[in-house]
Amino acid sequence: MTRLRLFDLPLDVITLDQTLDRLGEWIYRTPRAPHTVVTLNPEFIVQSRTQPDFVTVINQADLVTADGVGIVYAARQLAGTEVPRAPGMDIVRGLMERHGRDLRVFFLGAKPGVAETAAKNAADQYGIQVAGVHHGYFGPEEDQRVAELIRDSGAHLLLTGMGAGRQEIFNQYWRQVLNTPVMIGCGGVIDVLGGTAQLAPEWTRRMGVEFIWRIASDRRRWNRAPKLLQFVRLVQAQKRKQKA
After folding, report:
1. Which CDD domains match (predicted)?
2. 3-state secondary structure of 244
3. pLDDT per residue as tens digits for the range 4-23
4. Considering the entire predicted model, what is its pTM?
5. Distance from C-alpha of 131 to C-alpha of 119, rounded to nearest angstrom
6. What is the pLDDT of residue 219?
7. Which of 158, 98, 150 is nearest to 126 (CA)?
8. DSSP string spanning 212-226?
């Protein structure tokens, strides 16, 4: 597997199927060992410019996949490399489809009640075992309690949906306590599974422009548009710097 560097952050050149193969190996490896997964998107890169802790945990991740088409664009412009996408939603669904009832999943994140609904829907649709659920509305003073709860659940897979930065930092900082084979910062995946957010239409996902659809269809996301513009400017500025 090739690992690129974009804006001082790692990016693994790995397909969705290869990602699912690798995570499947980690899930059932004996003895258990914790692994963190980051699904890199343009907002992460913009946010990391002002959050050194976020940069650190991304660099420490065991696997960093290209979540958004913006990352594919950046890799092409800055590294001259075509990077396949492995979005968080596709990774989560792929693992559940592949492993079904053999997979124990802990759902961490979203508003109170949403994780419970997401867990029930996932169990009904994919047959997975629900290792546990917990909402994402708690402060750092409760991190250890929640980490120990997840550890004691015996989960194979932890879905952490607490917002960019917070979810990755939680997974990495508490990884030894969590001792969960695969931990993914999955953003809005729990909301989608719980029915409180809509999955982008398939045609937008095939074209890699689902983020435009999400922003246009949800006023709560309009404040994210400036970050995408900032990302494009960062890429252009870095490309000019490399040519100089």
Report:
1. Glyco_transf_WecG_TagA
2. coil
3. 999 999 999 999 999 999 99
4. 0.92
5. 9
6. 57
7. 98
8. HHHHHH-GGGGGGHH
